[in-house]
Design brief:
Largest sheet: 5 strands, parallel
Number of domains: 2
Structural class: alpha/beta
Strand order of the largest sheet: 2-1-3-4-5
Order of helices and strands: EHEHEHEHEHEEEEEHEEEEEH
CATH superfamily of the largest domain: Response regulator
Number of strands: 15
Length: 240
């Protein structure tokens, strides 16, 4: 669940942006809770009772401006991400001065809004339990425990999961490997990483998973794999 506040004095912009946020929520499979406000004072009053993960805040508003509202928020809260909204780029320096996290032109398309949301989602996941797979259209959280094996193929990385899904990611294999913080993962080939929990059998040259996939073992990794796999099995037996 991502808790979002949208503060803008334009009803049309609030309605349009709310529809875009809902579209992102459906496409990414991420639940959002959205509250809308038409002035900074209303937002500040709400913040005394509730917290938000992400605030979209218009700069030009009657009464309290977005810049002043952001300054008030930052006196008490440095954690919530604040994205300032404007029809002009001229307030970019002010956004930096009041410690906003970003600046979104209202003329920019849905893609830029989605990029901001995707970045927030990627920053908010617990990487000890998940990896973040970035595709051309979304950011997807993949639980480490569900990964059978990972394969680098041309400029893409394929993540095979225990429920039969294949997640295609644009994140390089070496970057994904750095996020695999569980001892059950072993890189047996320059293009393959296997989760040893899903190994059914192996020979000197290949691994067979319990899903029937055949994964090559590089000659350079063969001895290390055998030693690591035996230690892994011994450790599991000791836990029984």
């Amino acid at each position: 669940m991502i808790r979002i506040a949208l503060c803008d004095d334009s009803p049309e912009y609030r309605q349009r942006t709310a529809a875009q946020l809902e579209q992102w929520s459906v496409q990414r499979g991420v639940n959002i809770l959205l509250d809308t406000y038409d002035n900074g004072d209303a937002l500040l009053n709400a913040l005394s009772k509730r917290n938000y993960d992400l605030i979209f805040l218009d700069i030009i508003m009657p009464m309290l401006s977005g810049i002043d509202t952001c300054m008030e928020i930052r006196r008490e809260n440095r954690q919530t991400k604040i994205i300032l909204l404007s029809v002009s780029p001229e307030f970019g320096v002010d956004a930096f001065r009041v410690k906003a996290n970003g600046y979104l032109l209202k003329s920019q398309n849905t893609e830029r809004l989605f990029e901001i949301l995707d970045e927030h989602l990627a920053e908010s996941v617990d990487n000890s339990d998940f990896i973040v797979a970035k595709t051309l259209t979304m950011v997807k959280k993949v639980p480490l425990s569900s990964i059978r094996h990972i394969e680098a193929q041309n400029k893409q990385v394929l993540i095979y999961t225990s429920d039969g899904d294949v997640v295609t990611s644009s994140t390089p294999l070496h970057q994904i490997a750095a996020e695999l913080k569980m001892p059950c993962f072993f890189q047996c080939h320059r293009s393959y990483i296997v989760n040893m929990n899903f190994i059914s059998s192996y020979t000197k040259s290949e691994i067979v998973t319990d899903g029937g996939q055949h994964i090559p073992i590089s000659r350079n990794f063969a001895k290390e794999f055998q030693s690591t796999y035996f230690s892994f099995l011994f450790g599991k037996a000791g836990d029984i």
